[in-house]
Amino acid sequence: GLAKRFALLLPDLMDYGYSQNLHKRTVSLMDQADMLEELLRRRQVKHAHILAHDVGDTVAQELLARRAEGVLGFEIKSVVFLNGGMIPTLHRPRSMQKLLAGPFGPAIAQLTSKAKMLKGLKEVFGPNTQPAPSLYHCLWKATLGVNGKGALARRIRYMAERKQHAARWVAALNQPDLPMRLINGTADPVSGGHVLAEFAEKVPHADIVRLEGIGHFPQMEAPGDVLKAFNAFHDALAA
Fold it and tell me: How many whole angstroms separate alpha carbon 40 and alpha carbon 136?
């Protein structure tokens, strides 16, 4: 649906997916933003619309902060966020996330079983939009990526970074000259409907689309509704 209207770039973040981390280095969100800037430079992309989800939302916030400072290497035309911890004080991590972020995170990552990880994933989907077993298997493979269980404890560093840079990244959202929309699955226990009032207060120029009964993964749980809301947003920009 997106490809019918846009030229798409869908990069793995570093240490995610098929992005190999041969030196097992912990990658910061600042590093991720650097990588995206370099990717667009090499592709000679001068301007882009952003569609972000989860930790990608926070990487987008760093790009927005650089935009506000006048140092970003490309022009952001608009931003659409899906569920994510844009306002760190309202982020409600799951028990497994807290364990992975703790001092024994690397050991816990190695001990984590597929069953335990998928149980945690089930809890963040909407009650009536649970994925089929075959999709859970795909989610497990995608979560591990090519770097395996060791990456789980490295990646979770983003929760501490969100707190460290909260003032910078929340302030970066308030750029009234930049069109923004939040498409939110309200049944998400991590970053669902409980964030909407404060998001609306801190980002008054953005609009919010509520997907009732949808959990943390609107793009998988209600792809048609997400595409409709995304296209409506861009229809309004074009008009």
Answer: 32
HSE-CB for 70 with a 13 A CA cutoff: 0
How many whole angstroms from its chain centre is CA 206? 17
Structure-token pair, residue 67: 């935009």
* Angle, CA of 238, 231 and 210, to the nearest 5°: 120
pTM for this predicted structure: 0.93
Longest dimension (CA), the chain: 53
- List the end-to-end C-alpha distance of the chain, in Å, as a whole number: 20
Strand order in the sheet with 180-185: 47-52, 75-81, 180-185, 207-211
State the residue for tokens 């997400």.
Answer: 226
Averaged pLDDT of the chain: 92
DSSP state at residue 14 = T
Tokens of 128: 């009536």
Lowest mean pLDDT, pick from 21-35, 140-154, 175-189: 140-154
Q: Would you say how long the chain is, in residues?
A: 239
Q: CA dist 110 to 30, 106, 119, 149, 239, Å?
A: 26, 7, 17, 6, 52
Spatial contact of 86 and 173, defined as CB atoms under 8 Å apart: yes
